[in-house]
From TrEMBL:
Its EC number is 2.3.1.200. It comes from Microcaecilia unicolor. Residues 75-261 form the BPL/LPL catalytic domain. This is Lipoyl amidotransferase LIPT1, mitochondrial. InterPro entries: aa-tRNA-synth_II/BPL/LPL, BPL_LPL_catalytic, LipoylTrfase_LipoateP_Ligase. One of its GO terms (cellular component) is mitochondrion. Keywords: Acyltransferase, Mitochondrion, Signal, Transferase, Transit peptide. Pathway: Protein modification; protein lipoylation via exogenous pathway; protein N(6)-(lipoyl)lysine from lipoate: step 2/2. It catalyses: N(6)-[(R)-lipoyl]-L-lysyl-[glycine-cleavage complex H protein] + L-lysyl-[lipoyl-carrier protein] = L-lysyl-[glycine-cleavage complex H protein] + N(6)-[(R)-lipoyl]-L-lysyl-[lipoyl-carrier protein]; (R)-lipoyl-5'-AMP + L-lysyl-[lipoyl-carrier protein] = N(6)-[(R)-lipoyl]-L-lysyl-[lipoyl-carrier protein] + AMP + 2 H(+).
Length: 383
């Protein structure tokens, strides 16, 4: 932050800047003082807006900023645009099932994070070639079409011929067909936000691969995603880079809301700016939030046991609540496996988190030594 006087700019110290940002994010009062200090130039309105851009590409940190602004800022007569990008991640909607929506195995291998956001809707892939915009307003002023029109306007300042339009689902598509942006929203009691993605130069092979589940036999009422053919803006025009699009958006947003177009860079982990953000960050990364918030589901899986040199087909049915196996039953074609072993397997699985390592250990623990497991769906392959 600094004070502009005519053409001169006097930067504030780091600590003053940080204090000012904190105050601005909470309530805009110090701006009034600043207006008094600088008699010329600095025209930050008391009522108005601010453009923030994250310096972090940590998906949990950026989602924590959204939470923080939603929970802490007084957005009556004020609005905020938050611009952010993430390292590779799949971001699922509030009411989704990660085992249905993504390829957890591939994601683990490729270091792709999994995050659950607070807004509803489907699962999307993020990387540094995908930009996200979050539009915060009061609940009254919340208007997704207005925001999407602003994105379209910004894109056309870079490429005037761009055949981009909004759909009834609030996607942005190119040539009426290829999705470049997906939308979701969270509407609170008084505050709301609409956030959307924008594909500039994302990895076109990882995007569909990360969003393809390798699990079968899951039944649930969780929100399912709506797959689409996607395109990167950079493939249409090399001028449409993430950076160009971010600048165009900030310029357009500032013009529309008549605010300073200067973008304020923020570090999500700066507790001086976002007091208490660490707790939000920790929660967003937790197993309890990412997996545990999955709406209850059931899963049936067939696998083969090799017991005393014979193969037995087994059907395992599990009910999973809050990500934990609440009950399960083993269905054996014949009564080949000793009843105690069946019971032990069932008991061992009940109460476990629904994740391959946990299931594997449950099965290994139940095994007296001569059991082998082969599976084609869920990976309970014995090590
Ligand atoms: N990054 C990105 N952008 C646009 N479309 C995508 C993306 N990744 C995947 N997809 C396609 O959209 C569908 C899912 O569409 P669906 O309509 O089901 O879901 C969405 O669009 C949700 C958008 C959430 C936006 C938030 C903004 C900040 S954090 S995430 C998926 O199967 C792919 O075909």
């Amino acid at each position: 932050w600094g004070i502009r006087q005519g053409k001169e700019f006097f930067p504030l110290s780091a600590s003053a800047s940080s204090m000012l940002t904190r105050s601005i994010l909470k309530n805009y009062q110090p701006i009034v003082c600043l207006r008094k200090i600088s008699s010329t130039g600095f025209r930050s309105p008391v009522k108005g807006g601010i453009i923030l851009q994250s310096v972090s590409s940590d998906v949990y940190a950026n989602l924590a900023v959204e939470d923080w602004i939603h929970d802490n800022m007084d957005l009556k007569d004020r609005h905020v645009l938050f611009i952010w990008k993430n390292s590779p991640a799949v971001v699922i909607g509030r009411h989704q099932n990660p085992w249905v929506e993504c390829n957890l195995k591939l994601m683990k291998q490729r270091g792709i994070q999994l995050a659950r956001r607070r807004s509803g809707g489907g699962a999307v892939y993020h990387d540094l070639g995908n930009v996200n915009f979050t539009f915060f307003t009061s609940k009254k002023k919340y208007d997704r079409i207005e925001n999407l029109n602003l994105v379209i306007k910004a894109l056309r300042t870079v490429q005037p011929e761009l055949a981009v339009s909004a759909t009834k689902r609030y996607d942005l598509v190119l040539d009426g067909n290829f999705k470049i942006s997906g939308t979701a929203a969270k509407i609170g009691r008084t505050v709301a936000y609409h956030h959307c993605t924008l594909l500039c130069s994302a990895d076109r092979s990882l995007l569909p691969a990360a969003l393809k589940s390798h699990y079968h036999g899951i039944k649930s009422n969780a929100t399912t995603s709506v797959p689409a053919s996607v395109k990167n803006l950079l493939d249409v025009d090399p001028a449409l880079t993430c950076e160009a699009v971010m600048i165009a958006m900030a310029t357009e947003y500032a013009a529309q809301h008549q605010i300073d177009r200067q973008v304020k860079l923020v570090d999500p982990m700066d507790e001086a700016v976002f007091p208490g953000i660490g707790n939000k960050y920790t929660e967003l990364q937790s197993w309890r939030w990412i997996y545990g918030k999955t709406p209850k589901f059931s899963v049936s899986s067939c696998f083969q046991l090799v017991y005393q040199q014979s193969r037995v087909n087994v059907k395992l049915h599990m009910n999973v609540v809050n990500g934990v196996i609440e009950s399960c039953s083993l269905d054996l074609a014949d009564r080949y496996l000793p009843a105690e072993m069946c019971e032990k397997l069932q008991n061992n699985l009940t109460g476990r988190m629904f994740c391959p390592d946990e299931i594997e250990s449950a099965l290994v623990e139940a095994d007296s030594g001569d059991l082998e497991l082969h599976n084609n769906g869920i990976s309970y392959v014995k090590r």
